[in-house]
Structures are given as C-alpha cells and as structure tokens.
Sequence to fold (387 residues):
Amino acid sequence: MFYIKEQRNIIGMLFPDADKYNQMLESIGNFAEKEILPDAKKVDHEGIFPDFKELVKHGVMAIPFPEEYNGSGLPYPVYIAALEMLAKACANTALQVSVQGMVCEGIRLFGNERQRKEFLKERGLVGGRGLAAYALTEPCCGSDARSIKTNARLSGDTYILNGYKILITNPGEADIILVFANTDKGLSSFIVERGTPGFEITRNMPKLGLRGLGLSGIRIKDCRIARENLLGEDGEGFEYAKQMLNIGRMTLAALAVGIAQAAYEKSLMYSKERKAFGNNISSFQLIQEKLANMATEINAARLLTYYTAHLKDKGKDIASEAAQAKLFASEMALRVCDDAIQIYGGYGYIDERDIHRHWRDARFLTIGEGTSEILRGLIAHISLRQT
Ligand SMILES: Cc1cc2nc3c(=O)[nH]c(=O)nc-3n(C[C@H](O)[C@H](O)[C@H](O)COP(=O)(O)OP(=O)(O)OC[C@H]3O[C@@H](n4cnc5c(N)ncnc54)[C@H](O)[C@@H]3O)c2cc1C
Fold:
C-alpha cells in the first residue's frame, strides 16, 4: 500500500470529508507503485527522462490549480500527499512535477488573464501536457539572485534578452521556460517558448543524483521576447521569484519526506531479513535506535509539510513555514537515507540494492531553491522582524 496510514491520518485530520480525497490518493499511490516505481532504478542508472504521459492522465500535476485552467481545484495537502508518493517511487518524476507546480503558480498569481488562459490551460502546463522550467540561477549567482546579470532591454514592443543561465532543471524538455532578467526597472520574469531564436540550451551537466532529469545551461543571445510575455509587472520579478520559491520549497519538502519514506521502508524490511551473530539485525538495539529515529523524524517533517500546505490553502503567508519545512525535511532525508545505507552495510553502498539512489537524490534538497544556510537566515530574519 503506497498511500500510508500516516498520510491518511493527516488528510483525515484536515478534512472532515476526507473520503473523496482518500480514494483519489489511493489510486495515485497504486499508480506510483505499479507504474513509476518499477522504472525508477533504470531512470537513475541510465539517465532516462521519465515518461509523464500516464502521470498526466492521472491528473497529479493539476491537483491544486483552479478548474477554469483545467486544474482539479483540490486542496494543497492533497497535492503534497500525491507528490510524497511520487517521490517515494521516483524522485526524478516528482521533481519535474514540483518545478512545474512552481511555474504554474507563478503564472496563476502574477500573470494576466490572457497569460493564464494561454499557458496554464491551452498550452497544458497545469495538466502537464506541456512541461515547464524555471531559470533563475546564473554562473555568478545562485543564492544571491538579486545580482544576476542577464538583462532585458525594451525595444518597441519587444524585450531583447542577453545573458547566461546555469544549473537549470530540464530546459531541454520544457515547452515553456520562465526566465528571470534585469530590465531598467529591476528583476523581471519572462515566459519564453521552446525554440525561440537566440535561446540555446547548452551542455547537459552529469550529476550525483536525479539523473533522469537534464541539468543544463542556457545561452541567451539577442533573444526577442514579445512584451506580452513579460510576467506581471516590469521590475517585480524578485517578489515573484520569492513567492514561487515558497511553493517550490513546500513541494521539495514533500519530496524529502517521500524519499526518506522509501529508504525507511526498505530498511525495515532488510533489518528483518538480514542475520548477524545468529539474529536478525532488527533485534539489535543500535539498529532499532536508527529505525525509531527515522520513523519519528519522517513524521515530524511530514506534519510540518502538510501544515504548510494547509496554511497555503487558507491564503496565509507561508514564507517562514515553507522554509522551515524544506530545511527540516531535506536535512532529515539526508540523515534517514544515510542511516538506510548503514543498515544495509556493504550492500547499501553498491548499486544492486538501489539504496544509495535515495541519498543521492536527497542530497540536492538542501541546495536547490534556497540552501539550508539561506533558509536559516530567512527564518531567523522573519522571526526577528515579527518580535
Ligand atoms: C540538481 C539541481 C537542480 C537545479 N535546478 C534549478 C532550476 O531549475 N532553476 C534554477 O534557477 N536553479 C536551479 N538550481 C540551482 C540552485 O537553485 C542553486 O545551486 C542554489 O540556489 C545555490 O546557488 P549556488 O549553487 O550558486 O551556490 P552559492 O549561492 O554560490 O552558495 C555557495 C555556498 O555559500 C553559502 N552561502 C551563500 N550565501 C550565503 C549567506 N548569505 N549566508 C550563509 N551562507 C551563504 C550557500 O549556502 C552555499 O553553501 C539547481 C541546482 C541543482 C544542483
């Protein structure tokens, strides 16, 4: 059973009419277990881009978005539960859904009605028929996003973009890339379509984990973008990026919980099978300590993540909670996945048992969309401002 009782309990706690969500989540869980999980090891080993066709049919990407844009209009905690299960099966698949959700929410919040209709609905970003990428980071600056150098000069009804992006997830597969650049009014964001002249995806960068997704640079040279594809207001891009990152951080926390849950469940089973000194290793207290810590920390991270999603549904500012959820869940996932390798002993270190994939995938989560250092600074800053 992929939709576990801990998830069901939280959904039950949040919604008196939880049955309708439980049914849907069970079906997504079965799909993740039967259709996504069997390919996850291959996706990682061979660096294969996951197939999103079936996922699109199950409507996972559309869960939290309004029906008028072909979304399902369901609460964020339901989306988080679905993402958690996807990540438990295959973190590559879940990360693309997370990036997609972040871009869609940006267009929903800040785009005008034409942009929402065209990109979210007609171009299929909400459902996942069209794929999205988010391009903020540059060789000069990741954490220090205000200092990016890509610029956009307005000439008549066209912006002309020049610059270079790096470490961008999947721009080669994406139909729409949200690109951040500086105009004379400040940081702004632009909706760029695949194949726009002057927009060139450069080398794919091999990496530690998440190997099914491309990670590329983008060379932007005299790339002409119609003024109507400026997202929202000129000069407001930094605020937009921050708000999108709140969603990104909350969904990355869900990924962390799902990845850790996968490593934990494997560890439980292995500890009951593996014998040493005439006993199952699960009988040793030092192994039990690890299992107990894993279960407790995963549940703590899960609660923080669903709580953040609940606040998002209620229209609250989630800047601090999203940062806390990602900070805690990502560091938790690293501890849990490291303990899983330890419980597997030497077999945790080799490819065959597919254990170290979880640690390698989790390693990204303390870096992307705000490093742990940046998030600690942000959480403290918000708390200090409020006192
Ligand atoms: C797999 C992967 C996928 C990614 N996908 C995307 C994507 O789709 N789109 C995108 O735009 N970017 C993406 N990124 C980039 C990612 O967001 C950045 O790597 C991240 O924001 C950190 O930036 P940086 O690498 O430039 O590190 P830096 O900002 O150079 O930081 C280096 C170190 O210094 C620390 N540091 C920096 N400033 C401070 C400070 N004020 N106080 C304390 N410590 C500090 C950092 O925490 C870090 O430990 C991706 C990265 C990876 C690895």
Remarks:
- Residues 99, 134-137, 142-144, 167-169, 207, 210, 215, 364, 367-369, 371, 373-374, 377 surround flavin-adenine dinucleotide (CB under 6 Å).
- Residues 237-273 form the longest helix (37 residues).
- The first strand starts at residue 132 and ends at 135.
- The radius of gyration is 21 Å.
